[in-house]
Write a structure and sequence with these properties.
There is one protein chain. By secondary structure, the protein is α/β, with parallel strands linked by helices. The protein folds into two domains: about 220 residues, Rossmann fold, CATH 3.40.50.300; about 70 residues, Alpha-Beta Plaits (2-Layer Sandwich), CATH 3.30.70.260. The protein is about 35% helix and about 30% strand. The protein is built from ten helices and 14 strands.
Amino acid sequence: MNILAQHIVKKFAGVTALDDVTMEIPSGKIFGLLGPNGAGKTTFIRILNQIIQPTSGTITIDGNPLKISDVERMGYLPEERGLYRKMRVAEQILYFASLKGMDDAAAKQELEVWFERLEIGNWRNKRVEELSKGMQQKVQFIATVLHKPSLLILDEPFSGFDPLNAQIIKQEILRLKENGTTIILSTHNMESVEELCDNIALIYKSKNILNGNLSDIKQSYANNRYKIVFSGYYDKLLTTLTPSIKILCHEVEGNTTTVNIEVMQDIPTNEVLQFMMKSGNVLSFQPIIPSMNEIFIQVVQQQNQE
């Protein structure tokens, strides 16, 4: 399911929640929808789910305008969990499956698969209010994916999970991707973005200020920084240092030196490598790629300065 949102605007009583937001969510990929609280992420998700309508702009799915029936092909796990506390686990999941138009026999068969996969079959007849928060999360996750949606929208899906169960859910998300599901992951957890996402969009103050392939974005923010390991002496490097190269940090262990440098001018990588070879035998030379958390902070700070 390929999704193209073009020039989406949403206003509430004079407040602009989304301002000319355009993004493409590729089919069969995990798309990270990022941004601080109040940026507009949830508004975009609600428009996609057709809970609300945009003030202007268009959304197409596989080239066709978004329509009401598309909701049946979507699974939505909201940040505000929505289970009926008095209902028993199995009947609740089957109820949600029926709302998505799933056949009762098929739903029961699929439910057994998920009970075994997430190891909660023994809790099928428990009321939701009897479950821990993490167990409730598993139940809601199953309810979201049971009807095999083409588009899965997950809003902070790891909230409330311990590290072990969070890892289990991450593996299930990757498995769903491998089976062709398009996944939107809305989260503040940049570590999860690094692990899971193929593409991202960063919404800040209602605008889409950064979007594209995650690997390409990280490469573009490398900022000419390199980690270099060489067999040689740090003092010799200092004697040949030029203003075009700034040493960020270094570590010496025996005859092996590790340095992080920043190239202050537009110099070809080969010239940087040749310069380092003057100080010794270069064992390793690699760019320092910033984390998504560092990029997030940098981009937001730049926006605040404009």
